[in-house]
Amino acid sequence: MAGLEVVVRPVVFPNSRPAPARSLPPSDDPDKGFAVIRGNGAKQIDLTNSYSANASTSTKTETKRRVDQARVYQKNDDGSVNKENFVDIEVANKIWMQGLAEQSPNDDGIPPGAIAHSEGNRRVYEVERHFYQRIKEASNIEITKKDVIKNAEGGSE
User: Fold this and answer.
1) What are the sequence ranges of the domains in the chain?
2) Considering only Cβ atoms within 10 Å of each terminal Cβ, which end of the chain, N or C, has fewer?
């Protein structure tokens, strides 16, 4: 059975596989090819960061207001007034505001025309009064009360 040996035997060519990679460093310089990282670990770098912010506002607050109370009825397209459908409203015509003084003070430290009082440990001045147009009566507007003073806390005088 000499013929069977020729069929089963594999053929291997000598240059079919690459040569294995070298795992050792080159023999002339053993440190060649290696990176060396050097540094001074004893030095500390301090980066200082400082931030400062300051804001000041001179917000005025409302102390009281004078209002007119009115009842506004529904007005139809044809001009007739429906007295069964209405809304009660308050229309401000004067508002008192208080806050820190903004005007140049007199010799006593109070702005001209201001009323001074203390609030906690600071002096507060009533410095502004705003006037607004009054509501006028019309065919569908009925004024029920005039000049009602309301304090900022919700009470009325």
Assistant:
1) 61-150
2) N
